[in-house]
Structure formats: structure tokens, C-alpha cells
Amino acid sequence: MIRRKRPYVAGTLATALLGSVFALATPAYAQDATQERLVNADAEPQNWLIPFQNYSSHRYSRLDEVNRDTVGGLRVAFTVSLEDNSRGNVTNDNQSSPLVDNGVMWVEAHSGMLYRLDISSGDAGHIVWKADAGIDPEEHPRTRGFAMFEDSLVQNLTDGRVLRVDRDTGEIVWDLQIARVDGPGHSGVNLQEEGFRSNPLVAEGVIQVGNSRGDAGTRGWVAGLDFETGEELWRFYTVPGPGEFGHETWADEAGVAWRTGGAAIWTGWSYDPVQSAFIGGTAQPVPMFDPEYRPGDNLFSNSALSLDVHTGELNWFFQYTANESWDYDEQGVHMLINAPFGDSDRQMVTHFGRNGYYYQLDRTNGEFLTATQYVESITWTEGIDEKTGQPIEYDPSLTLQTYIPETRWARADADPKSVCPTVLGGTRWQPPSYNPDRMVAFVGSQDGCSGPNLILPSLSLEDGGIDEQGRWADGVPGWATPSIGLLAAVDVTTGEVINQINQEFSNRSGVLSTSGGLVFTALYDGSVRAYDDETLEELWRFNTGIGIKAPIISFEIDGKQYLAVIAGAPTGNVPDGRESAAGSVLYVFTL
Predict the structure, then answer these.
(1) In which residue ranges of the chain is pLDDT below 70?
(2) For residue 456, what pLDDT is reported?
(3) 151: Cβ–Cβ under 8 A, 6 or more apart, which residues?
(4) Are 250 and 205 in contact (CB under 8 A)?
(5) Nearest CA to 441 among 390, 393, 493?
(6) Separation of CA 391 from chain center
(7) Which pLDDT score is estimated for 578?
(8) pLDDT tens across 564-577, in order?
(9) Nearest 5 degrees, angle CA 451-CA 453-CA 459?
(10) Neighbours of 466 (CB within 10 A)
(11) Nearest to 378 by CA among 327, 449, 303, 289
């Protein structure tokens, strides 16, 4: 374990000046983010205290100054450049939400750099301190956010470290290597490939983190850490090892597939204070396109999980697609919703699946309630069984599922095959939103088909490792076929899609809904857009010129509503052939 306690300051503010600069630049006072405040985050619409707005991941703003009638007057209030975090790496990949507490904003840029900004004036973001976590430039810069709890910020980083940072001073309280450390139950394979990309979640004094590098050929896991000390309290392996429940669902003759089985965690989870449970999803099994390497249902890949906050024990699970082979991982956001469904009020988990279906489950036991197609075309299955929630073709007696053979990639294929939806989904990390007043859930994602693909077989190494082709599908043409954007709305009382539109560019930002009757989103071309939440008619847009993969938030200063988003996706061609620009900029909008 690595423990450090030192000033956590980089850039233009010297350590010796930190105290005086803080006193001069930050008149706003931000009280501790206690458990009580976080549980009741909905009561503070002026702030944004949790990465997905509240513990249920609703991403709903109760502010309504910006509404259908006024949204046309939105303008840029101010911007803050986050480019100095790049440290020579031009591949910006910002996917995180800022956090806001009473005129103070914290932002995490793509290489783990933290900023504290004084935004109390409403017309500028004054940098109070900049903090560099010291990630090796060779590490992939991607991050999906950080958490706030009590007097601290909590980061989990791509290099496997977890940090607790004093949110007022920027001082590190502790810095621990959690991933890439051998321990009890570890498979011992590809340990150095582990790391974090999802935002952490803190509740009841426990920090929830999860290994995000399943695609790199690692064994997935979720861990709970003590907030005060960083000590690991528990670890739940999402790929069961020998003697653990579910291990028999990795049925290869060599008995090694589980060692590198994936089932990663790379999107933030939700927290249910009633059940004292962390609830979220897991990614696909690995190798992703070669089910013959790993016969069996491959638990707990492609599953929703409910884990006890203090012990990590499994409360329940629901597997969406057993022995899956299209990269339809279901690690995306799982929203917690209380609403009427059927003949009674239900405590539900809702999930827009990467496999093209929208699901509702009972939150108390994982019981399947309903599933509805929300993308235009699905060709990997004929549908979802209304009683079991499993694909219609699923046969529990088989260790190798067939599904629809014409779209099921197999080692014996002589000709390429296509499949819908695209392997990008559906939706991946893009967070959805839930309007509790209308009882409508929204998703921003993409739509399309992938292929044709010709999948080459994976080669097993002696220790259970997988050759590079099997891990990454290198050289497979068409696996990331460009797709168009999709915006859809679902009535959670019925589980039915009530409206949907296509957008000309892929949506990798997700959505924010508001009590002003609006849905905000951003597209890969760099445009920020607002839609009428009933008709999905576009009412406003602003183009930053920089690709966007980060979600939008909303907050209030002195009674005035603001919206903010980080523009900074990797450069590349958008579908109409234009090149998106490089950059890393925080945009803040107001009327």
C-alpha cells in the first residue's frame, strides 16, 4: 500500500500560496457533503453533489428558469480551459461530470487532474487550485468522474490507485494502490492490466470501486473501501473462481477461461439506502466475440447485481444475456425508480441495455418485470421471454447458446456476418435520466448495425491468458461501424417507448432532464442541444467545435440557473466527414 499526505497542488498556484489564494478567491462556503445531504440531494437542486445527481442516478434537475419558453436565450456564461492537464497527450477523453456545492465547482480532467473553481460570481470560473494525481502519460487518459463525501473528494484512477483528497485544500489524505495488487482469490493473470474508469460511489462510509479493464483480459471485481483509511473491506469477484457460486458457468475443458473472464465495471453504480445496497451492472465476458472459448452462461457477466454495502455479499443478480458474443455488455447505468407498475407501486431498477432492450426489474429481489425494444432493429434474438426476461432462444441445458445463427459469430464461419444493434449498442456509459414528475425515463445513445465481421478464434495460453486477437479483436473489419444518434423516452409505469428520434451524430454524452420541460444532451460533433421533453422537438443548440462524451449538469448561483459540460473527446471524423477538433474546455451556459 502507498500512503501519502502532501499538498496536492500543481500548475500556477504554489503550495506556499495555497492558503492565501483560497481565502481571497473563494468567498463561497461549501459545507460537508454528509450522508444525510447526499441521501437528500434532490432537496438541493442548486447543487450537483453526486456524479449522477442523486444516489438513484436520476440526473434530473428541479430547476426551471431555463424552460421551453426561455431556452432559446441560453448563452455561454464562461469557459475554463482544462488543456494543461494533457501533459503532452493530445488524446483528450473527458467523460466526467463536474460537482457543485454552493458556488464552488470541482472538475476532473482526463488525466486525473482535479480543479477547484470559484464560480460564485456566475460569470467566471476562477481556479483556486489545480491538482495532478501523477498518472503516467502512457496510461489511457479516460475517466468518468469522481465522488464527494464529507470533507473530501474521492478519485479512482486508470492506474489502479484510489485517492481521498481534501476538497478545500487539495491535500491528499490517503493514496492507495487498490488494483494491480495481488491478493486472496486473484487469478494471477494480467494483474498489471487492471485499473479504474468508472466513477466511484461513496455511501455509509464505504467507497465502491470496480476493476474496469475486463477487455484487457482481467477477472472482474467490485470492492468496498473504508472512507476514513482506504482499507479494503471486501471484494466481490464478478467472475466466480473455484468453489464460488456460479463458477460452473465457465465450462471450458481446460478450466482456465474464468481467469481472464472480464465482467468489468466501467460505469458508476447506484445506491439504495433502504436496502443498504450498491446496485449496478457488469460488462461482457472475455474474449468478447468468441463464446466457444468460454462455454457456459459466464456468470456474472452481462448482469445486474445488488451487493451489501458493508459486506459485499450478493443480494441478487439478473443476467441479461448468457454466453453473449456481440460485446453487448450491460455495465451501463442502472437507475433506481419508485413508481406504479402493473397493479402496485414497485421499487424498480431500470436499465437501457446495450443489447437494444430497455429493462425493468424489482429492486428488492431482481425479479424481471418487463423489457421493451428501444432501438430500430434487433437481429441477434427474436425477442425477450415475457416470464423469464431471457432471450427467447436461450436454452439452459446448453453450454453454447445458438441464439440466431445467421447473426451469431462462430469459429467455423467462412463468410462475415452482420448484426443489429451495432456492437456500440444501444447505450454504453452514456447516463440516462428520469423525470419523477412525468414518470418518464430518457436515454441518449446511438443506433445502427455492425458488420460484416469475421471473427477469428482466440488462443488460450497456459495460465488462462488470451492472445491479443481474442482480447481486442484486432484486425476485425467493421466491428465499430459508425452509427447515428438516438434519443428515446419510456413510460416507466408501462415500460413502453412513448417517443424517439434519431440524431445525425452519435450520442456518447447521455441526457439530463429538467422540470423546465427539457431534455439536454450533447453529440460527438460538439453540439450541445435542448429538446422538448414531450415532443422531442429540438429547441436550442450550441456547437463547441470539440467532440463531447461527457454528461451535462445543471446548478444555480444566486437564484440563476446554469448548465455545464466538458467538451473534450478524441479527435476523429463525424459521420458527415467533418473532423472534430481537439481540446479540453469546460463550457458553462446561462440565460
Answers:
(1) 1-30, 84-91, 141, 468-482, 570-581
(2) 75
(3) 32, 33, 166, 167, 168
(4) no
(5) 493
(6) 25
(7) 59
(8) 999 987 655 555 55
(9) 150
(10) 27
(11) 449
Q: How far apart are CA 62 and CA 59, in angstroms?
A: 10
DSSP code of residue 345: E
Q: What is the CATH number of domain 15-590?
A: 2.140.10.10
Q: Which is nearest to 145 in space by CA: 514, 429, 443?
A: 429
Confidence at residue 256, expressed as pLDDT on a 0 to 100 scale: 93
CA angle 31, 3, 89 (to 5 degrees): 85
Q: Which three cell numbers stand for residue 442?
A: 430518457
Is residue 72 within 8 A of residue 525, CB to CB? The reply is: no
Return d(Cα 375, Cα 263) in angstroms, integer: 24
Q: Quick one: how many helices (H) and strands (E) in the chain? A: 3, 37
Please give the Cα distance from 338 to 347 (Å, whole number). 5
In this prediction, residue 471 carries a pLDDT of 61
For the chain, how are helix, strand and coil distributed in percent, rounded to 5? 10, 35, 55
* 279 beta partners: 270, 306
pLDDT of residue 13: 31
Residue 37 CB contacts under 8 Å (≥ 6 apart), including other chains? 31, 44, 49
Q: pLDDT value at position 579?
A: 60
DSSP-assigned letter for residue 271: E
Q: How far is residue 336's CA from residue 288's CA, in Å, rounded to a whole number? A: 28
CA–CA gap between residue 323 and residue 249 (Å, rounded): 9
Domain residue ranges in the chain: 15-590
Amino acid sitting at position 358: Y
SS3 247: helix
Strand order of the sheet with strand 99-101?
99-101, 104-108, 114-118, 126-131
Whether the model pTM is above 0.85:
yes
d(CA 179, CA 186): 11
Nine-digit cell string for 478? 467493421
Among 359, 363, 213, residue whose Cα is nearest residue 283: 213
Q: Length of the chain, please? A: 591
Residue 415: per-residue pLDDT: 85
pLDDT at 111: 77
Q: What is the enclosing helix (H) or strand (E) of 39? A: helix 35-39
Nearest by Cα to 453 from 428, 420, 427: 420
* DSSP letter assigned to residue 56: T
Cell numbers found for residue 205:
462510509
Contacts of 238 (CB under 8 A, 6+ apart): 210, 219, 220, 221, 222, 263, 264, 265, 282, 300, 301, 303, 305
Q: Check: CB of residue 225 under 8 Å from CB of residue 160.
A: no
Q: 70: part of which helix (H) or strand (E)?
A: none
Residues 515-524 pLDDT 10s:
999 999 999 8
Q: What is the pLDDT of residue 251?
A: 97
Between CA 191 and CA 221 the distance in angstroms is: 12
Tell me phi and psi for residue 537, to 5 degrees.
-75, 135
CA atoms of 545 and 564, how far apart (whole Å): 16
